[in-house]
Design goal:
alpha/beta; Aspartate Aminotransferase, domain 2; 2 domains; 4-stranded antiparallel β-sheet; 13% strand
């Protein structure tokens, strides 16, 4: 191979690891007996979904857990369970993904977006202002792309204002703030087991809480009919007495097949999270101290899971950023850009969600204008991550240098013209 040719990455940014063999065996066992529906069990059998709920609650240190059809369903279920209804205002991050405001809007409620900081977390000063201005009593806090804000300050602020916090932990399963697992600060937490998350069942979600009333409403809402007694990581029958008469059935249960796939993965969660973060650190080291590129600060209090990587090309022109994206793509590195004019695949912004009232977030606009995002699947080796960092580094440097040269030439020409005129 000619060593003068530029390096190219040939891996897939969407290829996940295979489902573990013990999870495959558990899934086959469910298919052999045919009892896929979570309430279709034989005497003395709990069922895979009920067992998963018990195990996940224990892993997160929660009293109660509900397994549902998707992370997005978990968000909507949590909102219904805490009493959000049509016309209510619900606060959420200006930087998040579409299922978060979608869950709010689907209830007829109104998303109220809050500015984000350069470190990609919710701006607590702006949150305080918007609580006062909107009168909202619920915050759906998105730990977007695995970035956790100062949860001690956030909870103190929300508790003082009487604001209920629902944590969207789709990107922080296995993460923590000052040793407290992500999802254990608010009243309810929601997780996703969609393919690109930290456990993979294709689609799926989990909801945890210590609040018996909230969990009873969530179980009923998920489609338990009067079979709520078959839930084990849930409150006793007395918790359902009032709620069972007026909680609509919005069926979104997880089935035993997906639960069977997830239970063995849960046992490996800590090991998998460590492997993701090791890959993140390799990319971070490879991009450190690169002119024009800003890394996202990770606080010491945050134990994060590095399943994706973000960096900023702060105050770059759209044309220059587009060049970086195209040049990296030519060399096999897929970057998602939150500043693009049109939504692409999973990437969209708050101004793309026109079912929400138009809002202006200048600070968020500036952050997202230069924000780059990249998946780090565990199918990548550490050597792959080092190669990816070298490619990004080279292409960012090339475009940055060219832009700087062009800017210098333009300034020189303008100065020469002014001198000639003088």
């Amino acid at each position: 191979m000619d060593s003068t040719l530029p390096e190219v990455f040939t891996g897939s940014f969407t290829q996940q690891e295979p489902i573990p063999e013990d999870a495959i065996a558990a899934a086959v066992a469910v298919m052999r007996h045919g009892r896929l529906h979570r309430y279709n069990v034989v005497p003395g059998e709990a069922g895979e979904a009920a067992a998963l709920e018990e195990e996940f609650a224990a892993a997160m240190g929660a009293k109660y857990c509900l397994a549902v059809a998707s992370g997005g369903y978990a968000l909507g279920c949590a909102l219904r369970a805490v009493g959000v209804g049509p016309g209510d205002r619900v606060l959420t991050n200006g930087f998040t993904l579409a299922p978060v405001p979608g869950a709010i809007a689907a209830l007829g409620a109104e998303p109220v977006f809050v500015e984000v900081t350069e470190d990609l977390v919710i701006d607590l000063a702006d949150l305080e202002r918007r609580i006062a201005a909107s009168g909202a009593k619920v915050l759906m806090l998105s730990h977007m792309r695995g970035h956790i804000c100062d949860m001690d300050r956030l909870m103190a602020l929300c508790d003082a204002a009487g604001v209920t916090v629902i944590e969207d932990c789709a990107h922080t399963m296995g993460a923590a703030w000052r040793g407290v697992p992500s999802g254990r600060h608010g009243r309810v937490a929601c997780y996703s087991t969609q393919t690109y998350k930290h456990m993979n069942s294709g689609e799926g979600g989990l909801l945890i809480t210590d609040d018996a009333e909230v969990m009873a409403r969530a179980v009923l809402s998920s489609g338990s009919y009067m079979l709520y007694g078959r839930h084990r990581a849930a409150p006793g029958p007395e918790a359902y007495e009032a709620a069972k008469w007026d909680t609509p059935n919005v069926s979104g249960r997880m089935d035993n097949l997906r639960a069977a796939i997830l239970r063995p993965q849960l046992r490996r969660l800590a090991e998998q999270c460590a492997a993701w973060t090791a890959r993140y650190r390799v990319v971070e080291a490879g991009l450190r101290d690169l002119p024009g590129l800003t890394l996202i600060a990770r606080p010491e209090a945050e134990s994060f899971v590095g399943s994706s990587f973000q960096f900023r090309l702060a105050d770059w022109s759209a044309e220059a950023i587009g060049q970086v994206v195209a040049r990296c793509a030519k060399r096999g590195v897929e970057l998602k850009w939150f500043g693009a004019a049109e939504p692409v695949a999973f990437t969209s912004r708050y101004d793309s969600w026109r079912y929400a009232p138009a809002q202006h977030l200048p600070q968020t606009d500036r952050v997202l204008a230069g924000l780059m995002d990249m998946r780090l699947p565990l199918t990548f080796s550490l050597e792959d991550c080092a190669l990816i960092a070298r490619i990004i580094r080279a292409e960012v440097a090339a475009v940055y240098q060219r832009a700087g040269t062009a800017k210098g030439a333009a300034q020189g020409a303008a100065g020469g013209a002014a001198q000639a005129a003088g």
